[in-house]
Amino acid sequence: MKFLPSGGQWVWTLLLAPWILFPIQAQPPTDAAFLSTLGELREASYSEKETIAERLSKTGHPSVRAVLTGFMEDRLCFRNSDRKVFLVKSNEGDSLNLADPLTLKDAGFASADSLTKIGTNNGLRHVLRTTIAHFALSSPDVSVRMEAVREMQQSLDEPTVALLRERSGVETNPGVKNEIATGLALASLDGSDPNARLEAVATLGKSVSQVVRNRLALLLENESDAKVRRAAAAAVATIDQWRTFYSAIETLFFGLSLGSVLVLIAIGLAITFGVMGVINMAHGELMMLGAYTTYAVQTAMPGHIGLSVLVAIPAAFLVSGSTGVLLERTIIRFLYGRPLETLLATFGVSLFLQQSVRSIFSALNRSVVTPEWMSGSLRLNDALTITYNRLYIVIFTLLVFSLILAVLKRTRIGLDIRAVSQNRAMAKAMGIRTEWVDAMTFGLGSGIAGVAGVALSQLTNVGPNLGQSYIIDSFMVVVFGGVGNLWGSLIGGMSMGVLNKLLEPYAGAVLAKIFVLVALILFIQARPRGLFPQAGRAAEDK
Amino acid sequence: MKLKASITAWLLFAGLVISKSAAGQDTIKVGVLHSLSGTMAISETTLKDTILMMIDAQNKKGGLLGKKLEAVVVDPASNWPLFAEKAAQLLEKDKVAVVFGCWTSVSRKSVLPVFEKDNGLLFYPVQYEGEESSKNVIYTGAAPNQQAIPAVDYLMKDVGVKRWVLEGTDYVYPRTTNKILEAYLKAKGVKPEDISINYTPFGHSDWQTRVAAIKKFGSAGKKTAVVSTINGDANVPFYKELGNQKISAEQIPVVAFSVGEEELSGLDTKPLLGHLAAWNYFESISTPANKAFIAQWHTFIKNQKRTTNDPMEAHYIGFNLWVKAVEKAKSTDVEKVLTALPGLETPNLTGGIAKVLPNHHITKPVYIGEVKADGQFNVVWKSAGTVPGDAWSDFLPGSKDIDADWVTLKCGNYNRVTKKCSGQNYK
Fold first, then answer.
1. Of A132 and B324, which is predicted with more confidence?
2. Residue A3: pLDDT over 70
3. For B48, which of A214, A259, A460, A473 is 20 to 30 Å away at the CA?
């Protein structure tokens, strides 16, 4: 602290230096105030920075929004040599492109070492976000305005309410208008006029937001006017009802999305285990290969993260599929009809694949970036949001499923696969190259595992152990659904997912999983062939 | 009695012969007991490399007591019974002077009887749940009062958190830590309805329900934070789900005790920005010692991108302490080294001094950092000075009367009320 006065003077001299050097450039008085306030950020503590940020926003300087946004995004720094504050526009490696905070004009490049970042923490960023929301109210982008109003609803002080009121007159978008009305209603709950409060409660009763519900519940406790209290109680009850309804839908979606992951990891196995009868313990590792393929593709095309995931799908199918064919040709074909040996051999293969990945990519997890279009969530209303990555995976699973079904039912190779699986000897007698069909079937199942791996890379860690954590689940789904039946795997996986998610809020994740397992064991006791047993003579042999 | 004495004498003689023949090779054997395969390989391989680097550096300085150090590396393969087997092999067959090893609490618990039976010496480098003090173990990682309690204090005082979600993976470390934290929060006046405790299985990857529940719990109008003891692999999907459900660190910060630089290097940091971690070391802390250590690590591992982390620093401290103890005792004999250890000091990498306490824990500074986009941490809080490690938590009813003191009491589990020592085993 004791260095501050002298340091301050020094800073002042430096800040004034440009004025002395370029006296022609006329500076409006607000520029100087803005710069000096900005300069205080260099030595301030986090809580001091909050008040400085508020003072900055009050200067009304034209570049304040850009500067505060930059500050929030950790792009504000000062040069070590002359302690001048800059905005970082972009960085290319170690060299940062700077901008002048006053004019926002380009200020050349500087190395990262010569600059000190003006740090932020969560609390400070929150303050900045609320401050910036005031500016964003007039943004041409509807979603930005929406976010801004929502942000402002959380801190409704006098100037904020005034701003909202002003905006409500000119706002054209009905959604944003609605949010502003909610914000204003929330604010008028504090008013002294019971009629205004009653009106506000009526407006808020249409909302399903938790913030509104909490505020109304608070009003219930403190309200003196009986009429308002009654209205508020009714409004809270309605909101609760709607929220329960939406949370049921949400749980259903959670269940379906967990189920679709289960289906996705099981479809491949439903083919290799279900159709061919091969217990492939390396199925999980084939998924892992798919996930690593996603990583490799992403590394190969660093500029196109969004596209890379799409490119990875066929790539993973090829990588895992060819590994599968290789596996079938070199190991599994010698072991048909000997399930125990197949199990052991493929288990060995799974260890081998894990260790090779560990040697090639290291034991550390690899980072697969989630593309922009897969992150975030779709907000249906205040009570119901659906995350994009889960939504896409549900759709993706259904796509893959119908594709496989089409291949099996509508193509020549599908016909061959079904023929061989139903009666090998007869198929052979009809001239089908059963060996070739075996390899292709196994390749198809393995390829699907690889595709599942691409989806998993968006949900979980890409590491050597990825496969292990899913292999049990995938076997469970196939056995539950009925070996040899694709529809069984779909229905089985989905119902296991929904059941799990229905139980989880009450029993906790650990117990829910145990309950599902116990239910599965009991079910298998009662119906050993699963949900949809395969009918006919072929089933008898298995 | 006579027979027993003669057997003892014979055994002593045999021991002497063996130790002489071992000394003939003129090396001091250092055991390294870290999983190099299996689930824990991701974390433990780095620690093996750290010890090899330290041994290498020590040998370049001329070794220890005039002898070269020789690493004996074994692979317990993330398999807990195998840990005990490999520990026995190190102590009984290889006759190592010291062992650096273990990561998970269950692996430590499984080797503990072996070290106590064979009177070995183990340096354990990972933050753990406490409630233990063995004569044969030096705990160089953080006890709960050196990581969890300061983190909660920070959230309570600096962030103003009023509602708490204690989210953990279902095993011994989270369960014990959360028990301590729950007792601590209640002692600080937090109401039971403002604490939510949940456990999920290992490798849990479907966090939708939990994150939705946290969101709901956090929307009650009070500042909410999540204290996470979620184990390594489950963290990525957890943070991803938080990001996707638009819960930012500004709204509900998550403070984690097992997410460090190494873990961050393997994941997309976007959804983690601003979330917190509490450690006793951060790679981003700029001190000359830390810079030198990072440079040494990069040279040794031949990869400029490898990160350093907290358990690595714990091994750095542990190794230096052992070297000092051996030099002080002028012997690698476990009894002599154990007598020499308490009170020894060595500098931390981030400034301050690590001192071995009579309870076999050490003093450590505490830092809280926010995750930055580059996978490093921005330190937002640090403890004033170092915090002495407490083996037995003061916040659990069963353990607050218990002391560990291997200098005067010679006991790791001394009850101040009943004035009894329940032996060197913790239970």
1. B324
2. no
3. A460
Range of the domain at A113: 4-124
Which of A218, A375, A510 is opposite residue B170, by nearest beta carbon? A510
Residue A132 located in a structural domain: no
Cα–Cα distance, B275 to B371 (Å, whole number):
6
Q: Which residues of A141-168 are buried (b: 16+ CB within 10 A; e: fewer)?
A: eeebbbbbbbbbbeebeeebbebbeebb
Does residue A176 share a domain with residue A44? no
Specify the amino acid at residue A49.
Answer: K
Q: Residue A1 — very low, low, confident or very high, per pLDDT cuts 50/70/90?
A: very low
Cβ–Cβ below 8 Å for B378 and A121: yes
Q: How far is CA B49 from the centre of its chain?
A: 17
ipTM over 0.90? The verdict is: no
**A253-294, pLDDT tens digit by residue?**
999 999 999 999 999 998 888 778 888 999 999 999 999 999
CATH no. of B145-285+368-388: 3.40.50.2300
Nearest residue, CB atoms, A254 vs list B208, B270, B372: B208
Angle at A492 between CA A489 and CA A497, to 5 degrees: 120
Whole-number average pLDDT of chain A? 85
CB distance A365–B380 less than 8 Å? no
> What are the chain A neighbours of B159 within 8 Å (beta carbons)?
122-123
* Sequence ranges of the domains in chain B: 23-142+290-362, 145-285+368-388
Check whether residue A116 and residue A143 sit in a common domain.
Answer: no
Please tell me if residue A154 touches chain B, with a CB cutoff of 8 Å.
Answer: no
What's the gap in Å between the CA of B191 and the closest CA on chain A? 19
Q: Residue A22: is its pLDDT beyond 80?
A: no
Domain B23-142+290-362 -> CATH class? alpha beta
Cβ contact (<8 Å) for B244 and A126?
Answer: no
A195 touching B, CB under 8 A?
A: no
Say how far apart CA B4 and CA B6 lie, in whole Å: 5
